[in-house]
Amino acid sequence: MHKHGNRKRHAFTLIEILLVVVIIGILAGLVALKLTGRAEDARVTRAKADIAGSISSALDMFEQDTGRYPTTEEGLNALIENPGVPNWKGYLKGGLKPDPWGTPYVYQYISDDRSYRVFSCGPDGQPGTEDDIYP
Questions:
Q1: Could you list the pLDDT tens digit for every one of the 135 residues in the chain?
Q2: Cβ(59)–Cβ(116) below 8 Å
Q3: Any idea where the domains of the chain sit in the sequence?
Q4: Which terminus of the chain has a lower count of CB atoms within 10 Å, N or C?
Q5: 22 torsion bin: left (phi>0), alpha (psi -120 to 50), beta (else)
Q6: pTM (2 decimals)?
């Protein structure tokens, strides 16, 4: 004989399941909020690292081998394809990847002091705006 007070529970109630789902949803939302800002920070960090690292090194090697930096017209493509200068050796064998937002990096030769400027247009993809990223 079974009495109602001594019965063993073999399943969760609907309220218990709903409570667990709500708690998991809240935790997932909090984690997503924390990671959203970090993703943009990571893109900015990667753009700065690309410019200060591989691109600048390739430009410096180009200058060392050819005696000059690429012109603005030749651009960063001069690191991948010979623009017709002697002693060119190829500098970005894997090609030039776009910035983290899918936009090409911007290169400008500064003839006054024989240097260059490389930057990312940032999230808006437009040069000359406040979200441009310099190393």
A1: 555 555 666 777 888 888 888 888 888 877 776 666 677 888 999 999 999 999 999 999 999 999 999 999 999 999 999 999 999 999 988 889 999 999 999 999 998 888 999 999 999 999 999 999 998
A2: yes
A3: 43-135
A4: N
A5: alpha
A6: 0.72
